[in-house]
Write a structure and sequence with these properties.
Layout lengths: L3 H60 L10 H13 L22 E3 L2 E3 L23
Antiparallel strand pairs: 1-2
């Protein structure tokens, strides 16, 4: 039994050496993975940048109306169309929501099966008077 403590000590040293070797291998593995992932991300970034630039350019070309003849008059016509988009259109009559008639906040659109009256009162004002009612300013 005199050699038992020595064997335990040797076994413990071997075990610690194996753990250190395993840790070194794991560390090397993660360093290699980090490098490989870095290269893959750089390649993906370059590919995405090229693809996105191409897609954006294609969408910008598709945004131009093709029904207008190419001419010098095209730009003023496009500006007039953009001006029309900026106009505020009067709200439709809403007999079921009398407090909303003529209000500039009236939205009146369906989203799926949900009808949105306005942002302040999504389901409409309960009575005939709305404290948030604002008419259209005519200038």
């Amino acid at each position: 039994m005199a050699g038992f403590p020595q064997k335990m000590e040797d076994w413990l040293k071997e075990w610690l050496t194996e753990i250190e070797m395993t840790l070194l291998q794991v560390d090397r593995f993660f360093q290699d993975m980090q490098q490989a992932i870095g290269v893959a991300v750089a390649d993906l970034d370059a590919t995405l940048e090229t693809t996105l630039e191409s897609a954006i350019a294609q969408l910008q070309r598709a945004d131009e109306p093709d029904w207008l003849p190419p001419s010098e008059e095209r730009e003023p016509l496009l500006m007039r169309l953009e001006d029309l988009e900026l106009l505020e259109w009067p709200a439709a009559e809403t007999p079921s929501h009398r407090a909303c008639v003529g209000c500039r906040h009236y939205h009146g659109q369906y989203y799926g099966s949900n009808f949105l009256v306005c942002a302040m009162h999504p389901y409409g004002q309960g009575d005939d008077h709305c404290p948030d009612w604002e008419g259209y300013a005519h200038s």
